[in-house]
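Protein in question passed on here:
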Amino acid sequence: MRPLCFILMPFGKKPAGDGRVVNFDVVYEKLIKPAVIDAGLEPLRADEDITGGVIHKAMFERLVLCEYAVADLTTANANVFYELGIRHSVRPWATQLLFAEGWGQLPFDVGLLRAIPYQLGPDGKPTNTKRNVVILTERLKEAMGATTDSPLFQMLEGFPVPDIARLKTDVFRDRIRYSEDIKAKLTKARQEGEIAVVAVETELGDISRADAAVVVDLFLSYRAVKSWGRMISLVERMAPPLSVTVLVREQLGLALNRIGRSDEAERVLKDLIAERGGSSETYGILGRVYKDRWEKAINSGNIYLAQGLLDQAISAYLKGFEADWRDAYPGINAVTLMEVKTPPDPRQSVLLPVVRYSNEMRIAQGEPDYWDYATQLELAILGRDQKVGEIALANALALARESWEPETTARNLALIRQARMARGETVTWANEAEVALLKLCQEKNNVC
């Protein structure tokens, strides 16, 4: 059985502070993971991306009980440094550091430690990977000699080393494998539907004591199968430190809105903005709350109320886009609703090129997802660009994972279609895109 090596590093694509972006997932897959395996170890990556950064019991266990660790200090990520501090305080040796050379200075506190520099290309992905994999592999093998690398234990002679029982380590390993098994079951359950996800939850037992990463995966699995009531119920049973995280509260707002508890959803999201500041995601979900109210007012014939709610929705989406210009999601919703206004909002012509640029940059950075191409499709329809729209549609359909994704895009395209029809305009190929999205939704879930 291979010894475990805990990987401390950011997830996804993160800014380096000078406009460049580091693709940490590629750094992990191409550099760190191969080196750890070549050293005869089993890589175990932190769950920061899933759990919204919350430090929970399982995280502390991994920091303390894993025999080996690798920490990527690039971008001076606060969570990574906090975790590294814990590691250095309990483990005298076997913690290897690395950083991207030329992508920001290391803080003074760790600048003198023996960290391995690696290189990134303009796309934020590692270069010279073969050479750097060999270097990291050799360092990890050297660490097996129990040479002290923690500055705490190096500087303070006689500082007591905690007695980490072997039995506890074995129990910990079993728990890690259990968590991975549950995640695999949830992946399958999302394809089978709500009943299958409920079965996995039953297996977990007391949710408040379950691994936080698994609980959040369960939470998002209920979202995938549109089980909004179960999402809300799950939040009430989560451990308090997890239930108050930004990710959970944002998705709680989404779920409350989807079952018609609009006032509660608005309150949850506004409280979150007041406490943590507005993000593109929080404002985007709040925009959806106002957007749904607007549609309800339209359907009931309350025209003046509808006008006010439409302005509220546009304002929320704009604030979301302004909070992070790199996130085109709230931007595309803002310009789409501007198209719906009578007459169209004049700000749309100014904002469209900005949203388009944001979307193009996300796609150019590599590994675009469904939402990147769905946004490109909406922008092409708004700009009446059939050639770009048809390519974007094909890419979006190929990358759609869950039925609610094409359903959401089709809903926005229907708003554009209805607004243009009211003005006597028709765009045949745009209507075909809407039909194709709804067809995919039906094939995936048979509920749209």
User: Anything to note?
Assistant: Residues 48-53 have pLDDT under 50 and may be disordered. The first strand starts at residue 4 and ends at 8. Residues 67 and 242 are 27 Å apart (CA to CA).
